Amino acid sequence: MREHVDRLGAEHPPIPLDSADFTMKRPDLLVSRFGATLAYMTRVELEVERNVLELNLLLPDPPPVDKYFYDDVWGPQEIHHGLLLDRMQTLAGLPVSAPNVDKIDFQLKLLGALAHLSPIQDISRMLYYLTGVATEKSAILAYNLLYKGLLDLGEKAVASTIIAPIRRQEPGHFAYYKIAAIGLWNDMAPWQKWLTRLLRKQSFEVVGAYNRRQRAEFGGVMEDIGITADGDIGIQKYAQQVGQVEMELLWAQKQGLQLPTYVLDSFRSAFRLFRRSSR
Ligand SMILES: [Fe+2]
Ligand SMILES: [Fe+2]
Prior knowledge:
Blueprint: H1 2-11, H2 27-46, H3 48-58, H4 64-91, H5 106-114, H6 118-152, H7 156-187, H8 190-203, H9 212-224, H10 232-250, H11 261-278
Bound molecules: fe (ii) ion (FE2) (2 copies).
The site of one fe (ii) ion has 6 residues, from α4 and α7.
């Protein structure tokens, strides 16, 4: 694990902010096609700052390698993703992002208090890894689609000097969480696995959404980047990829189930909310 993190840190330093070429041919068109997507992704990347505070609360006594990963490698990389996207969107004419970087949800505080008990902390840690897996997979897929979308608009500069370098850093994050999740799952007692399944089912959320409005916004992102171009089939394919690791880990005993229902349900519901709010 440590080697993986060493390698990520060495091969992927935070993207230098002056390495980006912010030239946009038609910023107005770019905003009308992908403005909402850019704003959403910028916020989620910048909120990593709060995620690190939450982690310190949730995992008062984390394995050193986790702390090393999120403090020294993951955090700085994601913040630069956010700063680059924020600069791009403001240059395109959108408002500066207003992420929530310090307000922590009450439920998390409660879980944080319980996390001082080590068997409980293992469960929090498992949920953190699972969220990481789903979040990073969502990011990889979204950046792939956004990259193609920007090229289709002829916006080569921003696609290749901003979106492409960002998307190159996400698979390493995904791999970290996946390896960590598999390792911890295999060490868990049956009651911990049971509780993890229960909590995961209840707390799964589409990436970056903490309320109804944000859920609807994510539904809009799904439409703008083309996930829903083929209707529900597209949502199913997307959910399948996002939920694959936890399907194989948490629900392996459920014969015939293709993906966890709660994963598909939350993507469908985000899209429905968006449709309703945009009419
Ligand atoms: Fe990122
Ligand atoms: Fe990431």
